[in-house]
Structures are given as C-alpha cells and as structure tokens.
Amino acid sequence: MSHRTKVVVVGAGPAGASLALLLARGGMAVTLVEAGTNLERQFRGEALMPSGLEALAAMGLLELIPGLPHRPLVEWRFVVNGQELFTATEPLGGDPSRPCTLVSQPALLEALLKRGSTYPSFAIERGQPVVDLLWQQERVAGVQLRDGSQLPADLVVGCDGRGSLVRQKAGLALQSSPSPIDLLWFQLASPAASPLAGSFTTLVGPQGVFSAFESASGGVQLGWVIGKSQATPELSREGWIERMAALSPPQLAAWLRQWRGGLGAPNRLTVQVGLAERWCQPGLLLLGDAAHPMGPVRAQGINMALRDAWVAAMRLLPLLSSGCSGAALDGVAVQIEAERRPEIIRMQTLQAAEAARGEQLRQQGWLRGALAIAAPLVGPAIAAHWSQQQQPLRQGLAQLP
After folding, report:
1. Which Pfam families match (predicted)?
2. Lower CB density within 10 Å: C or N end of the chain?
C-alpha cells in the first residue's frame, strides 16, 4: 500500500481555511490547526476585490457568498476639505457581476470550515496553538501543540498570519518594508441607515484623514490614519466624533453626531508590510500573511491569500492525492513560491505608491486646498485617472491556473 501524504495547515485564516478545504476535497489527509476557539478578531479585512472573487470562483466556492453577511460596494468617494473631489462607481469598468464586495470574514471562514468538514479526510484542531515544529534531521516533520500532542506531517503549511510562529520556528527571516502610518479602527453601531449609501468614503482635511464604509455585518467601520510614531490620541467618544465630523460633509457630520453613542473604542492596527526571504524549506511552505504581510490599501491581505491557496492546491494535489516523496513535495513548494512571489512583489509596490499619494495629501495643506477649490473642474479627470490606476490593485497581476 502506498503512503498517504499528510498535510498540516496552521492557521484558519483565508489562506489556511481555503487550502485545507481544497486539499480535503481532493481526497488527501489534512489537519487544520487554529489557535483560537473562534474566528472573531479585532479587525479582519472584508473587501473582496475581483481578484479574490476570481479565486473563489476558481475554487467553486463563490456560491457561498450569497448566504453570508455581504454588501456589494456601490462607489468610491473622496472628500477633501469638506468638498467632494470625485466619486467612482463600481465596478470601475470591470465585470458588472463582480464589483468589490464586502463580506464578513469570520462568517466566510466558518463557511469554509463547514464545507471542509463534509470531507472525510478533513480534520480540525481548534483552540490548540502550535508551539513548535517537529524535525527529522533538517526536514520539518510536523507540529507540536500546546497540550503536548504532536501532529506528524509530510508537509506543514504555515498560514498563521503576519506574526507567524511557524515562520519564526523555521528560521525564515521576514524582510520588512517601512510604513509611515498605522490605522485606528472604530465600529459605529446605529439603528438608522447611514448617508454613506454603499460608498467607501475617504475624507481628508487639516484635522486628519479617515475612511468610512458600511460593514457587511451591519454598522459603520471608520478607519483613522495615524502616524507610525504617534501615540494613540486619548480622546473621548465625543472628541473622536467631532474630529470626524469636522472632515465630513454636512449630512454625514450630522449623522455621526446623532449616533455618537454607538461609537466603540479605537483598535490600533499596526501596519506591517514585508516579504519572507524564502517561503519554503524542506517539509514546510508559507502562504498568505505568513509569507508576505500586506498593507491595508484595497484589502490585499484576504485577496492575495485566496490566490495563494488556489495556486498551492493546484500544484500540490497531483502529488498529494497519490502519495509522493519529500523531495517531490519540496520541489512543488519551490514552484509555488516562484509562481506567487512576483504578483506579491508588484502588488506591494503598487500599494506603497498608492499609500505615498495618500500621505502626500495628508501632509500638504496647499495641495488639499487647491484640489478642494478646483474640484468641480478637475474632479472628473481625477476620477478617470484614479479608476485606471486601481485596475491592477483590483484585478490582480497574475493569471490563475
């Protein structure tokens, strides 16, 4: 009897949950290890760009979306010094059936796990963090859990996020790229519909910069840009509302003030961008943020993770379903990195350029003033140029298998 290849996937985020499902659907033995007992986090990106929707469609999992809390985005709106600069309507000239869609990420992950559990070769360990890797000479041979139990594996796939313990234990260095900003995320619960009306609105002025959109699960999410070295301002709920209202057009400002009681405390998202020097070594492969922490521009973390998972599944399944040598697995892991790395590098470069343009607007009052004054004249041209710039950030930069 041939050896049945066993894979352990660490982390039930977008890359890990979807990869484990795909491998189990292909008939191979896979154990998904998730440190948490639930998948709720202080912040999980929920914007599926066409690139992420394409990956879900390739997986045959796009059908899950209608059954989850979701909200197609209607438009992108930019306000400078209280003056609307431009709006750009989804899908920005792309496929009308695939606009940017906000989806509750915890609900999506649970749906992936539920679908995965329908396959007999799928197993999951929840609430059991990985604390170490198992080794056979120079090869990763499995993982050890906090309770002391061990899970042997022919291949360990680390999908455990930007602070990846798997990456650290494997000694794979992360090359970090500096970010000048962090983000403060707020939730605002309200029984009344917001005037955002399905738009992702970015507001820039002398008081600062923030973005606002209606969450897939209800309420409004507000993201305030803060300098990397700046301490989180100690403002009251009313103080934050007034700061945001000062940047907002009258209708949004009035709504924020009316429902200020629903504003939650800010959660600071430390922006970390980086790229592992190597994504693999014998017996090990990194995917998603474990291999390449993404910046927040256009929510690339979830979209690139789904694309990683699809490529990995397509390259691994021909080997894993029938059993194979460690050398063959390692060769495919190298191939996966070579296939995915160029898109990630280019995407991070595009994210950095977009972030730099936003930082320039945040820092330069004269530029904001000029744009606000000239908005009626230059707004349409800026909208067309901006929409064109967004295409690679939305569509991806590589063809999926």
Report:
1. FAD_binding_3 (PF01494)
2. N
pTM of this structure: 0.96
186 in Cβ contact with 224 (< 8 Å)? yes
Q: Please state the rounded mean pLDDT for residues 6-11.
A: 97
Residue 297 near residue 355 (C-beta atoms within 8 A): yes
Q: Which pLDDT score is estimated for 40?
A: 77
Shortest CA distance to 166 belongs to which of 70, 310, 42, 283? 283
Q: Is the C-alpha dihedral spanning 207, 211, 214, 216 positive or negative?
A: negative
User: What 3-state class would DSSP assign to 70?
Assistant: strand
Which own/partner pairs from 387-393 qualify as long-range (CB within 8 Å, at least 24 positions apart)? 387/88, 387/92, 387/93, 389/354, 390/88, 390/92, 390/298, 391/92, 391/93, 391/94, 392/346, 392/347, 392/350, 393/49, 393/297, 393/298, 393/300, 393/347, 393/350, 393/351, 393/354
Distance CA 395, CA 389 (A): 11
Q: What 3-state class would DSSP assign to 36?
A: coil
Using alpha carbons, select from 278, 289, 293, 273 the residue that is nearest to residue 353.
Answer: 273
SS3 state of residue 90? coil
User: pLDDT tens, 92-106?
Assistant: 988 898 999 999 999
**Residue 44: pLDDT over 50:** yes
Domains of the chain: 6-70+101-177+273-355 (3.50.50.60), 181-270+363-395 (3.30.9)
